[in-house]
Amino acid sequence: MLNISADDVDSCLDHAGLIETLRRAFRQGAVQPVRHHHTVERPGASDATLLLMPAWNDFSNAEVGNGYIGVKIATVSPDNNAIGKPAVMAVYLLMDGRTGEPLALIDGQRVTAWRTACASGLATSYLARQDASRLLIVGAGALAPHLARAHSAVRPITEIRIWNRSSGNAQKVVDSLNAAGMNAAVAGDLDEAVAEADIVSCATLSNEPLVRGAVLKPGTHVDLIGAFTPTMRESDDEAVRRASVFVDTRAGAVKEAGDIVQALKSGALKEEEICADLYELTRGDKPGRRSDDEITLFKSVGAAIEDLAAGIAVYEKHRA
């Protein structure tokens, strides 16, 4: 069995290529049970979350062949930032689809960062204006640099702003992006930054809305990545009410995504008003953006099909 490190993952992937890999994966489909989601209560500290995310190729598809089975084991520990560790920890186990033989144990944190950002890039390819050039990233965690590159792979981004509760962490991301030749700066006032952006990409562990619908300009695309439990939220009801709403998977979004669950509960959104998921967008079953003035909102909670597609891509490239 191969042991594939974070550096190995980086050497096997590029953002534009993984976006296209995910596009093919959603078009082809896979068996993807709803993920196991467990709260780990810890007295005197924030609750952690344990996630088990299995998926396997659809073996009824004659093109699959032996195929693969994969499962990600992940934890989310909000207090980790205080000790300088990432909130998300994970490993990914890839197995032979015919025999169940373990093939590779892959660094799950890095796979998660790559596939999450590229899923947002995939959605942006359908939902952002073609001329979208101003990107605001809310949150300065491990995802932020990947989000800058994924959105830039599908739209002509010329200006990147980073907002974070800790401006020092935002500056670190800005410095890394500028060193890579991108045009980045720290954003000051969040409402002002949201109002100026063409794409707002939010990746936080917030329990309170950060993106206010009242300040969104016509034509903005809002990309929401955090709020992976019903009690978390990154946007308010007005943002959801003003936008055409899209999700990565309908089953996951209406059950787990706080931005969707809370909007459904308040009446700001009806389930039948969700325009499409990534399966429907990639297959052309439903349209994406329909006008330059339309506000679009994409809510991602993470899908095991994304991990499977990324894990296979890493394994096959590493083995070659």
Report what the structure shows:
The model has no long low-confidence stretch (mean pLDDT 94). The strands form 2 sheets. An 8-stranded parallel β-sheet has the order 10-9-8-11-12-15-13-14, with helices on both faces. Strands 1, 2, 3, 4, 5, 6 and 7 form a 7-stranded mixed β-sheet that branches. Helices cover 36% and strands 23% of the residues. With 320 residues, the protein is an alpha/beta fold. The chain has 2 domains: 2-111 and 305-319, ornithine cyclodeaminase, domain 1, CATH 3.30.1780.10; 123-302, NAD(P)-binding Rossmann-like Domain (Rossmann fold, 3-Layer(aba) Sandwich), CATH 3.40.50.720. The relative contact order is 0.17. It is globular and about 55 Å long. The protein contains 11 helices and 15 strands. This is Ornithine cyclodeaminase. Its EC number is 4.3.1.12. Pfam families: OCD_Mu_crystall.
Q: Helices and strands, in N-to-C order?
A: EHHEEEEEEHEHEHEHEEHEHHEHEH
Major pleated sheet: 8 strands, parallel
The structural class is: alpha/beta
**Looking at the structure, what is the overall shape?**
globular
Indicate the low-confidence ranges by residue numbers: none
Strand content: 15-25%
Name of the CATH homologous superfamily of the largest domain:
NAD(P)-binding Rossmann-like Domain
Averaged pLDDT: 94
Give the helix tally: 11
Amino-to-carboxy terminus distance: 15 Å
